[in-house]
Amino acid sequence: MKTLTRISIFVLVAIVLSLAFSSRAQAPAALAATPPMGWNSWNHFADKVDDAGVRAAADAIASSGMKAAGYTYVNIDDTWEGTRDASGNITTNKKFPDMKALADYVHSKGLKIGIYSGPGPKTCAGYEGSYPHEEQDAKTYAAWGIDYLKYDLCSFTRFMDRAHSADHGHQLMLDAYTKMHNALVATGRPIVFSLCQYGWQDVWKWGPSVGGNLWRTTGDIEDNYDRMATIGFGQLALAKYAGPGHWNDPDMLEVGNGGMNGDEYRTHMSLWAILAAPLLAGNDLSKMTPETLAILTNHDVIAIDQDPAGHQGDRISALGMTEDWGRTLADGSWAVGIFNRNDAPAEGVLRFDDLGIKGRAHVHDVWAAKDLGELEREYRTQVPAHGVVLLIVKK
Ligand code: GLA
What we know:
It is a single chain. The chain is α/β, with parallel strands linked by helices. The chain folds into two domains: 37-305, Aldolase class I (TIM Barrel, Alpha-Beta Barrel); 314-394, Golgi alpha-mannosidase II (Immunoglobulin-like, Sandwich), CATH 2.60.40. Helix content is 35%, strand content 23%. It contains 13 helices and 18 strands. The protein has helices at residues 2-30, 42-45, 51-64, 66-69, 99-108, 134-144, 157-161, 166-187, 203-206, 225-232, 262-274, 290-297, 299-305; strands at 37-40, 73-75, 81-84, 90-92, 112-117, 148-152, 192-196, 214-216, 247-249, 279-281, 314-319, 322-328, 334-340, 346-351, 360-365, 370-376, 378-383, 388-394. The protein has an eight-stranded parallel beta sheet. It has a six-stranded antiparallel beta sheet with strand order 11-12-13-18-15-16. Helix 6 runs parallel beside helix 8. The longest helix is centred in the N-terminal third of the chain and has 29 residues, at 2-30.
């Protein structure tokens, strides 16, 4: 009887412990279970970002329909940092008089707030980085109520350059990201960890092991079709590295910043949705045209991006300058973009065979919000210059 009691106590303790550990192990997946959505200050405001601008962005997300569409994170990029106080605590500069009050304000709108730093002594814009104050900074972020950290390599490369071998330099970088990840976890506050090191050294292979919920796969995007297309169509063969809790990040959106036309911005948004990319708007949300808002908040495009299965897409076929990119969705259907990379309109084609569908398939045009019915073997269509026809295809 005594032995039995001991055994049952032992079993009980084992169950409690395994539950505790399994829920800890699952924490990163619960964070960023789908690609993060929100806004980031950099693409439009760069070093002009300030408290008022962040509040205005939060107001706009809450009132424009973006929050309802799924945009959640209001992320402050570089240039918020001040100096360190006598105890080494990071302070804000005069553009951000009270970060805690700002976080409270963003939270009061039902949104979350993100911030930016890096593992080097200086950030990319030359402001104070986290080296060697990682734990202290993580605690400060948590005390302010921060929910998301973009951690940008920048000046950390000086340590890597001084390493005695390339492998050693690589290890230093991994250690630096792991250090901040552990510091964030130790705060007990769920904080999404966004790695920014421009896709160097196959970050998709080790990003999850240093606690990354997402990692930039490229250098910086710009608000023009060529740069956006180079990045977006350059994301070949990365699909297998993405999934719930850990995403490839081809950089923030430029939709609405003015350097591309509507067809090009629909290409940008469609490609990012097929790539299961984070959707961080990068425009001035207080001055959006109806077309910009419609592109950013298209319910069906966002549903593709946020599909719970989290299968990143890839290129399915290419014919000259037209390319079909697609991903499978949780309900067994496909999201496919027929992209025209030509400077003039062109015919594109989707062959159902390429999706493993024999014979007939049901086709829905997402941007046109139009059912095309049951089609035989393929769908041929005119695609605008630099444009896309985005489809949902079901057997
Ligand atoms: C790097 C990043 C950008 C931005 C700037 C800020 O260039 O890649 O996304 O954060 O730094 O200085």
